[in-house]
Write a sequence for this structure.
């Protein structure tokens, strides 16, 4: 079923690309490559939107960072140069306060816990916060759990991280997280990570299974430690300038198509995660699973103290942790 779903979506996206009869075509950006779950999910959203608008509204996905890296595409989306954007939550941390909470290390107990939170009123509240920043939050996608990988040695404890250089997204929380673990954080664009590991500028990075695999980072960083420090959802947003040009009826079509693409994305994500894990293991990557996360979690106290400062954010953290 899952393989059939992927094949069907790939075929459907090829057919949709051939269609040229749309009155309005939204340009959507993604840094990930063609066939990646987030890319397929936005293409599925476009298919739903085209069907429900009788061919008036379409989505063209520019994958593989064709329109730029995430930081640049956020600004382009705010200015209406790009209509839609699938972005990791990290780059929004310094822009939209509420996104900091879901980017905190170990704030979610599991992927299932994250789903319960983001599918409910807390998720709606965070989506609404984008509007004050010239963006409209449409839906949350999965980003898996992020773990450390490096080219030097197996990491089995916090002591092994001491002094090592790790790439992180351009987010103060991620920088402080790595520093709290005793390593050195190096913010870099995603596209520069492979060559930076290869040339020794950094020792490694941190990401989920599909990103670790699809980027080829496993070729130059053969040690992957499942510390799962972050379970950060990703977000699909639309430019408010584009949104405001739509009728209320079309706005509802866009919002519903985005929501309906979420379960498709999650099924694709599970499929891709398993395939990526198997591929890197077959390539000889050493996966370290025997690790005590307790010291890692305890080391995050100063990160929470620094970044969860307002009553609003403290309340969000408490409500997330209280969600079953």
């Amino acid at each position: 079923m899952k393989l059939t779903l992927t094949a069907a979506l790939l075929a459907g996206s090829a057919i949709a690309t051939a269609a040229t009869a749309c009155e309005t075509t939204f340009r959507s950006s993604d840094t990930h490559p063609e066939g990646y779950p987030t890319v397929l999910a936005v293409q599925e959203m476009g298919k739903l939107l085209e069907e429900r608008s009788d061919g008036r509204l379409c989505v063209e996905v520019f994958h593989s960072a064709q329109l730029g890296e995430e930081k640049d595409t956020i600004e382009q989306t705010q200015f209406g140069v790009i209509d839609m954007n699938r972005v990791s939550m990290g780059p929004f941390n310094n822009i939209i306060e509420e996104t900091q909470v879901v980017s905190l290390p170990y704030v979610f107990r599991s992927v299932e816990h994250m789903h319960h939170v983001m599918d409910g009123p807390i998720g709606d509240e965070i989506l609404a916060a984008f509007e004050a920043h010239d963006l409209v939050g449409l839906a949350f996608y999965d980003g898996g759990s992020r773990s450390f990988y490096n080219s030097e040695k197996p990491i089995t404890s916090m002591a092994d991280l001491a002094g090592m250089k790790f790439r992180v997204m351009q987010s103060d929380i991620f920088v402080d997280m790595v520093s709290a673990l005793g390593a050195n954080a190096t913010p870099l664009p995603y596209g520069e990570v492979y060559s930076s590991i290869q040339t020794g500028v950094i020792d490694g990075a941190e990401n989920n299974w599909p990103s670790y695999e699809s980027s080829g980072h496993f070729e130059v960083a053969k040690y992957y430690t499942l510390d799962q420090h972050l379970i950060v959802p990703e977000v699909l947003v639309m430019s408010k300038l584009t949104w405001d040009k739509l009728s209320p009826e079309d706005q509802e079509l866009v919002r519903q198509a985005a929501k309906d693409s979420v379960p498709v994305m999650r099924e694709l994500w599970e499929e891709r995660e398993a395939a990526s894990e198997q591929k890197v293991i077959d390539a000889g990557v050493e996966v370290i699973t025997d690790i005590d996360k307790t010291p890692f979690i305890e080391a995050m106290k100063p990160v929470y103290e620094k970044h969860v400062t307002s009553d609003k954010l403290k309340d969000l953290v408490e409500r997330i942790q209280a969600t079953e």
Notes: The chain has 14 helices and eleven strands.
